[in-house]
Amino acid sequence: MASKQVYVICGAAGSGKTTVAQYLRERFNMHRVVTHTTRPPRPGERDGVDYHFETAASMAKLHLLESVTYDQAQYGSSREGLAEGWQRGQDDVIVLDTQGAITYHQALGDQVTVIFLTVSHLAALAKRMSDRGDHQAAIAARLKSPEYRRDLRLPKELVGIARVVVNDDWVTTKQKLGQLINQK
Ligand SMILES: Nc1ncnc2c1ncn2[C@@H]1O[C@H](COP(=O)(O)OP(=O)(O)OP(=O)(O)O)[C@@H](O)[C@H]1O
Ligand SMILES: Nc1nc2c(ncn2[C@@H]2O[C@H](COP(=O)(O)O)[C@@H](O)[C@H]2O)c(=O)[nH]1
Predict the structure, then answer these.
(1) Which of 96, 114, 129, when mutated, tests ligand 2's pocket best, judged by the most ligand atoms within 8 Å of its CB?
(2) CA–CA separation, 28 vs 7, rounded Å?
(3) Residue 96: which domain range?
(4) What separation in Å is there between the alpha carbon of 74 and the centre of ligand 2?
(5) 163 φ/ψ angles, rounded to the nearest 5 degrees
(6) Is 1 inside a domain boundary?
(7) What's the pTM value of the predicted model, to 2 decimals?
(8) Which amino acid residue places its CA nearest to atom 1 of ligand 2?
(9) Is residue 142 part of a domain?
């Protein structure tokens, strides 16, 4: 199998990680790695497309490359998910929390490009979640979680490694992503 890249998109909740992953899939023909979670689907989310939605019991049976607890739910990704894209000759794109991004960087080294998303005004994050249709109770729980607070900032382990993209304006973000991908 040719050595391909995996683009890891991490950053604050609501900063646009899923939107960026979808764009990289469509514009650069990347393979979107679908990860596993025990959290319930949000309005409009589909099993096998947005996530593999699991129970605690089904999650425990998976052979995962890494897993985390985020806002009281479990999340995890597998080597098989990465291999799907690479076997087709595609680069992968995956959406992870910052802990997952650190693990990927440590495990896969130069094969990993980490992109950390942020916004200039943090108040935009809750508004985007609300505009996305998230339930108000889910937004409140998310904003209170320690993982949400942690992922507002680039962790020290990713300083000098992650490419930071301020996703305030979508047109500007697309230009930055294009520059970043074409440099690889
Ligand atoms: N540059 C932007 N300007 C305005 N809205 C945006 C921008 N980028 C993304 N959005 C919107 O913000 C909302 C949150 O984006 P998205 O779901 O991609 O975030 P996320 O980081 O994956 O969130 P979470 O971690 O909560 O799953 C979506 O409705 C998306 O369309
Ligand atoms: N380390 C991992 N993080 C993951 C994985 N799948 C998703 N995520 C991240 O979890 C939080 C919460 O996701 P949400 O969809 O409930 O908002 C977010 O930061 C995702 O990027 C995974 O397999 N491993």
Answers:
(1) 96
(2) 11
(3) 6-183
(4) 9
(5) -90, 125
(6) no
(7) 0.97
(8) 100
(9) yes
Based on the structure, what is the number of domains in the chain?
Answer: 1
Pair of tokens at residue 90: 């595609």
Q: List the CATH number of the domain containing 97.
A: 3.40.50.300
Rounded Cα distance, 7 and 18, in Å: 12
Separation between Cα atoms, residue 118 and residue 55, nearest integer Å: 31
Name the H helices within 61-135: 79-87, 98-108, 123-132
**Ligand 1, pocket-test mutation among 71, 122, 132, most atoms within 8 A of CB:** 132
Residue nearest to atom 28 of ligand 1 (CA): 132
* Strand partners for 70: 73
**Is residue 150 one of the residues assigned to a domain?**
yes
Ligand 1 contact, 19 CB (< 6 A): yes
Query: Per the domain annotation, does 143 fall within a domain?
Result: yes
State how far the alpha carbon of 148 is from the alpha carbons of 16, 17, 109, 142, 154, in Å. Answer: 14, 14, 26, 6, 12
pLDDT at residue 157 tops 80: yes
Pairing assessment for the beta strands 52-53 and 36-37 based on DSSP bridges: parallel
pLDDT digits 0-9 by tens, 14-73? 999 999 999 999 999 999 999 999 999 999 999 999 999 999 999 999 999 999 999 999
Amino acid 3: pLDDT: 61
